[in-house]
Amino acid sequence: SQQGEEDPQALSIQEGENATMNCSYKTSINNLQWYRQNSGRGLVHLILIRSNEREKHSGRLRVTLDTSKKSSSLLITASRAADTASYFCAATTYNFNKFYFGSGTKLNVKP
Amino acid sequence: GAVVSQHPSWVICKSGTSVKIECRSLDFQATTMFWYRQFPKQSLMLMATSNEGSKATYEQGVEKDKFLINHASLTLSTLTVTSAHPEDSSFYICSAPRVGARINAEAFFGQGTRLTVV
């Protein structure tokens, strides 16, 4: 299986706290992307980090990538109740635009 | 607004019937689209790659005769679940990269179709 793993599976925090989610993958990647999914809805792209990058920022999001460990982390700073959703990492291979998704982290931000 | 649209957003069908799900790219052309299945509280599993003008390629373990894929135009791919059974009940999502985009750019996802087979 090419699927990855994410931890924690579920995370509950208070508004204003930071949320950190980790992702491990199995395949060699071209890049790694993070997506958000609200319950029963499609996915929304958050951020992309290339295999030759180690860290990337976008607004309140910070992503790190360690290709030697085949792992990535997503940090959401100063979380808001509206950040409540499931977050998935997706590893993309060097061909065919295939995405292999991690198992996801369900984040609950309490107001 | 959405750039990839799926229809229907939900469907309930009787066991043994077939269901067609459409995935359209709204303002761009997509020579390739991808179909995923997501069971409750689980991740997305890639089912197949839909190729415009040629046969779809299926991931290991996915029955091609069960899940028929047709990519009839540069803006439309369809997934037909044939002879559906309750175990086919799931959330089906399509995605499309923009034609001309650099390889492995971010993908646009449809809003998903929830299939319930009774």
The average pLDDT score of chain A comes to 89
Instruction: Count the E strands of chain A.
Output: 11
Strands of chain B, total number: 11
Name the overall outline of chain B.
globular
> Which percent range fits the helix content of chain A?
under 10%
Strand content bin of chain B: over 45%
What amount of the residues of chain A lies in strands? over 45%
Q: What's the oligomerization state?
A: heterodimer
Number of helices of chain B: 0
- End-to-end CA span of chain B: 33 Å
Low-confidence stretches of chain A: none
Mean residue pLDDT of chain B: 89
Alpha-carbon distance between the two ends of chain A: 38 Å
Structural class by SSE content of chain A: mainly beta
Percent helix among the residues of chain B?
under 10%
Describe the structure concisely.
The complex is a heterodimer of chains A (111) and B (118). Chain A is mostly beta strands and 111 residues long. Chain A has strands spanning 5-7, 10-14, 19-24, 31-37, 43-50, 55-58, 61-66, 71-76, 85-92, 99-101, 105-110.
Write the layout of secondary structure elements.
The complex is a heterodimer of chains A (111) and B (118).
Chain A: E1 5-7, E2 10-14, E3 19-24, E4 31-37, E5 43-50, E6 55-58, E7 61-66, E8 71-76, E9 85-92, E10 99-101, E11 105-110
Parallel strand pairs in A: 2-11
Antiparallel strand pairs in A: 1-3, 3-8, 4-5, 4-9, 6-7, 7-8, 9-10, 9-11
Chain B: E1 4-7, E2 10-13, E3 19-25, E4 32-38, E5 44-51, E6 57-58, E7 67-73, E8 76-81, E9 90-96, E10 108-109, E11 113-117
Parallel strand pairs in B: 2-11
Antiparallel strand pairs in B: 1-3, 3-8, 4-5, 4-9, 5-6, 7-8, 9-10, 9-11
